[in-house]
UniProtKB/TrEMBL annotation:
Residues 77-350 form the Radical SAM core domain. It comes from the Archaea. Residues 448-457 have a biased composition (Basic and acidic residues). The keyword Iron applies. Residues 420-457 are annotated as: Disordered. The lineage of its organism: Archaea, Methanobacteriati, Methanobacteriota, Stenosarchaea group, Halobacteria. Its cofactor is [4Fe-4S] cluster. This is FO synthase subunit 2. CDD domains: Radical_SAM.
Length: 457
């Protein structure tokens, strides 16, 4: 039997070695000069000539990033009133960092296996979103597994049904499954309740929505926009260097494919976010190259990327960890430097997000003094990190946000997905709840009882 890959076996073409010095890179960062990949490598490593991270140098990088954050966006800390409504966990792509997915065959009608995952029908999605909107929420984020029964729309389904080898295009008809997720456009229009902002269809999902056709990504994203899609989450980015993707997600779209899909979504007028999923097999050279690819993309899409979200790899239950390919995730030093260097390098993206899902409240707050200015959203439920073994829960109320943000002397501000609409929250004016949504009246999203239901006795 073939021995699985382990950390020691990995050799990459790109390694963190440069002709730059840490001091020069720091001087450039402090001056606000545009950084090169080598500069970013020096800052991320606190100097390639030394082993490990130097704590004095790290503090210098964090300080430069914090100062840049203050210059670019000031003292406001933003967050959004949103829910996550992921439609299905059925997925056969097999990314080795992912524990969100469940093998698609476990969802079939004729199987003995009880699937551990879920699929929602469009009407179930609508009900969940409608309930959240009635509570004041104004964004729904929806990211899903690549369910083989998904088609973009009825026309796409006809093409897939007529395909001579459906398996080759990862298609199985909805009748084969216990629950029919409908089409992507059905789901998007079902979730489009009362003008809620729909943030969905990652480049990987965009790829699935055109499989077996010669349609461009523009064609796919314009049909989705017509169904009610507003912005595209830039997940599936992972590390935008193919030698890393070959190890952690060989079944996924390439770096080029991801960039093509994102650019196409922007071309049809959709807003974008961008992410990096770091702290697994990659090194600092890969992280720096990733930042460069995102910064270049932002130039091409004319500023359509509203925020950059560093996602620290949650290792506990994942195949990468269980098969000893990695021995854990990023250290706290690495997390802080990732946020700081994102702020310093991405001089054309205004907002850097601190994910309390990945870092927890305490470290998440610390990131707001390392270059981050956005503190994510209320999300109501969470499945990706939880299933990977993350421990930081699923929901933050507006009151939680006010407490957390004021505890570090900053200003809590609710924002729309695109950051265009904002409302400063007065900490002396409770109760705290959303006011920017179609049905927001300033009352809390959940009552205290709903948040912590009384124990049955
Ligand atoms: C679970 S997928 C769902 C959407 C779609 N299937 C895709 O791949 O874009 C969304 C993102 O979650 C992130 N993710 C998955 N597992 C993770 C983990 N263990 N730790 C951190 N982020 C993770 C990855 O960045 C991934 O692109
Ligand atoms: N960082 C994470 C997010 N971020 C997305 C935000 O919640 C929001 O949708 C975006 O800022 C657009 O307004 N979502 C998660 O579920 N988990 C994260 O770790
Ligand atoms: N899917 C990501 C979160 C995410 C969603 C939307 C975004 O725009 C950015 C990040 C996760 O939980 O890992
Ligand atoms: S990251 Fe997305 S594409 Fe990859 S296995 Fe998980 S759900 Fe599927």
């Amino acid at each position: 039997m073939e021995r699985p890959v382990t950390e020691a076996d990995l050799t990459f073409d790109h390694v963190p070695e440069t002709d730059q010095s840490f001091e020069n890179a720091l001087t450039k960062a402090r001056a606000g000069d545009r950084l090169t990949v080598d500069d970013a490598i020096e800052l991320l490593t606190t100097g390639t000539e030394i082993g490990g991270i130097d704590s004095t140098r790290k503090e210098q990088v964090l300080e430069a990033a914090d100062r840049r954050r203050a210059d670019v966006v000031g003292e406001e800390v933003t967050f959004v009133a949103n829910l996550n409504n992921n439609v299905t966990t059925a997925c056969n792509v097999g990314c080795l960092f992912c524990n969100f997915k469940d093998a698609a065959h476990t969802f079939e009608r004729d199987t003995e296996i009880q699937s551990a995952g879920f699929t929602k029908t469009p009407s179930e999605s609508r009900e969940i979103v409608a309930d959240a909107v009635s509570r004041g929420v104004y964004e729904v984020t929806s990211v899903s597994g690549l369910h083989p029964a998904f088609a973009l729309d009825d026309e796409h389904r006809e093409i897939l049904e007529a395909h001579p080898d459906p398996k080759a295009v990862n298609y199985k008809p909805p009748e084969a499954y216990e629950i029919d997720p409908g089409t992507y456009t059905d789901q998007i229009s079902a979730m489009s309740v009362d003008g809620v902002h729909v943030h969905s269809m990652t480049p990987e999902e965009g790829y699935h929505a055109r499989r077996g056709t010669d349609w461009s990504y523009e064609e796919v994203y314009s049909r989705l926009a017509a169904a009610g899609l507003d912005t595209v989450p830039g997940t599936a980015a992972e590390i935008l260097v193919d030698e890393v993707r070959d190890v952690i997600c060989p079944g996924k779209i390439s770096t080029e494919g991801w960039l093509e899909a994102m650019e196409a979504a922007a071309n049809v007028g959709l807003g974008l976010t961008a992410t990096i999923m770091y702290g697994h097999v990659e090194n600092e050279a890969h992280r720096a190259m990733h930042l460069k690819r995102v910064r270049d993309l932002q130039e091409r899409v004319d500023g359509a990327i509203t925020e950059f979200v560093p996602l620290s790899f949650v290792h506990q239950n994942t195949p990468l960890y269980e098969h000893d390919v990695v021995s854990g995730g990023a250290s706290t030093d690495e997390d802080e430097l990732m946020i700081a260097v994102s702020r310093l390098f991405l001089d054309n993206i205004d907002h850097i997000q601190s994910s309390w899902v990945k870092y927890g409240d305490e470290q998440g707050l610390k990131m707001l003094s390392c270059g981050a200015d956005d503190f994510m959203g209320t999300i109501l439920s969470e499945e990706i990190t939880k299933r990977a073994g993350g421990e930081y829960g699923e929901y933050r109320s507006f009151a939680d946000y006010v407490d957390l943000v004021t505890s570090i002397g900053r200003v809590p501000v609710e924002r729309s997905t695109d950051y265009e609409t904002r409302r400063v929250i007065d900490p002396d004016e409770p109760p705290f709840g959303p006011r920017l949504g179609p049905k927001s009246d300033g009352t809390p999203i959940l009552t205290p009882e709903e948040r912590a239901p009384p124990a049955d006795d």
